[in-house]
Design a protein that fits this description.
The protein is mainly β. It is built from 4 helices and 16 strands. Strands 1-2-3-4-5-6-7-8-9-10-11-12-13-14-15-16 form a 16-stranded antiparallel beta barrel. A hairpin with a 3-residue loop joins strand 6 and strand 7.
Length: about 260
């Protein structure tokens, strides 16, 4: 199961980050059609040479009438099926899978018996994420990882992410470049659904464009090793991605995006 989540995070990290150019969207004949196109399914084929296997998995997304995420389920040939329900009370999420949800002025917290996750919000975006693991010896939550998200000056694009260990040491970071097309998750762009997706491993779901280049830096001895990834897309007439292709050093990934008709 851990391997599946690692693969899910890897593949969906590529999907999107925030909008940098609205021209293509604004020039469409029907703005209403653009706003109402909802992603329902992602079909993925991952040829992972590292594990010497091909993994096929399908993600199905369900929403309420307000386009809020209510269920995420996935089926794969490598791991058991997963289904996670998201429950609302009024306009607030109160449960996501095993996690209960609490709110402060600028923070949303997910709590389970074994884990706690904090999402710090600024301008409707997640700017910092902290993951804690429950320590049975001390009966308290211990900080494991802190992620920080840097946006452009208009808070439209995530331009950098940084990951720190429990001691505050930078372990890895990444920078991003985008196309000017529409993020498949654009129309569930409220912070609660965004946090839900981030909890499920979908990075960048508060964004409106698609990552076309990512450069990742990982701590190694006294320096950082870097890797550059490029991604290509096909689009429909409304500028939404329909296909994604990416080839790495030890894997290839293809995805198909299916929208609600």
């Amino acid at each position: 199961m851990k391997k599946f989540y690692h693969i899910l995070l890897l593949s969906l990290t590529l999907i999107a980050c925030e909008q940098s150019d609205d021209n293509d969207i604004q020039n469409k004949d029907s703005q209403e059609d653009v706003e109402n196109l909802i992603l329902k399914r992602v079909e993925s084929i991952l040829d992972w040479e590292l594990y010497k296997e091909v993994i096929i998995y399908n993600d199905d997304l369900s929403y309420d009438l307000n386009n809020r995420l209510t269920n995420w389920s996935t089926k794969t040939n490598d791991d058991p099926s997963i289904s996670i329900d998201i429950t609302y009370s009024g306009n607030q999420i109160v449960q996501i899978g095993e996690f209960s949800v609490t709110y402060d002025e600028d923070k949303i917290t997910f709590i389970s018996p074994l884990r706690k996750e904090e999402f710090f919000i600024q301008n409707g975006k997640v700017v910092m994420y902290k993951w804690y693991q429950f320590n049975t010896d001390t009966s308290s939550y211990r900080l494991v990882v802190t992620n920080k998200y840097t946006y452009d000056k208009d808070f439209r694009n995530t331009i950098r992410t940084d990951e720190f260990n429990a001691d505050g040491e930078l372990r890895q970071y990444a920078t991003y470049e985008y196309d000017n097309k529409i993020n498949p998750y654009r129309n569930i762009n409220n912070v609660l659904s965004v946090v839900s997706f981030m909890e499920l491993g979908f990075f960048g779901t508060d964004s409106e464009n698609n990552v076309v280049r990512m450069e990742s830096f990982t701590k190694f001895n006294d320096g950082f090793n870097s890797r550059v990834f490029t991604i290509t897309y096909s689009y429909n007439d409304l500028n939404y991605p329909t296909n994604l292709k990416r080839v790495g050093e030890d894997y290839s990934l293809e995805q198909i995006f299916i929208y609600e008709e």
